Amino acid sequence: MTEPVKNLRFVLARRPEGPIRPDDFRAVHETLPALEPGQALVRQVFMSLDPAMRGWMSDNRDSYVPPVEIGETMRSFGVGVIAASRIDELEVGTRVSGRFGWTQHAIVGAEDITPLPVELSLEVAVAVLGLPGATAWYGLFEVGKPKPGETLLVSGAAGSVGSLVGQMAKAEGLRVIGIAGSAEKCTWLVDELGFDDAINYRSDDVAAAVKKLAPDGVDIYFENVGGELLQIALNNMNTNGRLVMCGLISQYNATDTVVGPNLMRMVTKRLTMQGFVMTDHLGRFGEFARKVGTYLQQGSLHYRTDIVVGLEQAPTAINKLFDGTNQGKLIIKVS
Questions:
Q1: How far apart are CA 193 and CA 196, in angstroms?
Q2: Which residues contact 169 (CB under 8 A, 6 or more apart)?
Q3: Is the sign of the CA dihedral 135, 247, 194, 304 positive or negative?
């Protein structure tokens, strides 16, 4: 770094109670220190906003990752460009991904980043081949174990993960039914992504619709939402079905105790239900990127992004994940 670099980042100011508020974060304006040997400076270009962030803000210390501490930079994944480097094998201009946080710039070591293929756009990297694509691929294939001809039901189907899960399943010969929160999203799932059917949980009788659209039952349920939808899925599962527990977004902002579904059908139908988190498998991201990239090359995957410009918009924009107003993968354009 030849010139001092001015930086903006957001730290967690307090733990949210219910919906996230902008004043749950605090802006920090700073001048970054000079790089030391073995360090590089990343200029973050796109930052991913994900539902898991709500859990990271809580004080739950019995979770899969420690919580973000008060005063600590808010955790997030993103993609960017090396702006300065004191790492011999890392050149300025190299495009990388990593867990940079809510910041314009990040000082990193070689172990903190993954170089990206030169032919890959940064938007695709964060929307498809980053955390969403890895989560979709691992959940469907490693946990769901799909077979051609089976029926997949996916909640949160118009989200960044659910939309990719459905398309991958279609590419493997499954019948796919998506559950989403608007008529426009349902139309997008069927007409553009190739889902067989879609259910609008805000206007349709979901229980009746699942019975009608999956008369022979559901073999795999990919769960992103929770609550009543999980019970409906349980009621329609086939013997030896698999429930892939990716997320429970309907409960993330809950302040009261959530009443769970009746799990007796887990016994009577000999179901398998498995939860997973992608932070357990960060070392496999290269493998995931290659396999998901194959679907992209085949034209089997389509995506859309909801890009909000400016890091300062993140404390407000994150709520689009929970009120359903995001139209695709929610991304902050940092620079």
A1: 9
A2: 140, 146, 152, 154, 176, 220
A3: negative
Q: What is the CATH number of domain 131-279?
A: 3.40.50.720
Domain spanning 6-126+304-333: CATH superfamily: Medium-chain alcohol dehydrogenases, catalytic domain (3.90.180.10)
Report the predicted TM-score, pTM, of the whole model to 2 decimal places.
0.86
Please name the residues in contact with 320: beta carbons below 8 A apart, sequence gap of 6 or more: 49, 306, 308, 326, 330
pLDDT of residue 1: 47
* Residues listed for the chain: 335
Measured over the CA atoms of residue 283, residue 95, residue 50 and residue 225, the dihedral's sign is negative
Q: Largest Cα–Cα distance of the chain, in whole Å?
A: 67
What pLDDT is stored for residue 259 in this prediction?
Answer: 66
Can you give the residue ranges of every domain in the chain? 6-126+304-333, 131-279
What is the distance between the alpha carbons of residues 289 and 71, in angstroms, rounded to a whole number? 33
Averages of pLDDT over each 10 residues, the chain, 335 residues: 86 94 98 97 96 90 88 97 96 95 98 87 90 91 98 95 97 97 96 98 97 98 92 97 89 62 90 90 81 88 94 97 86 97
- Report d(CA 206, CA 215) in Å as an integer: 14
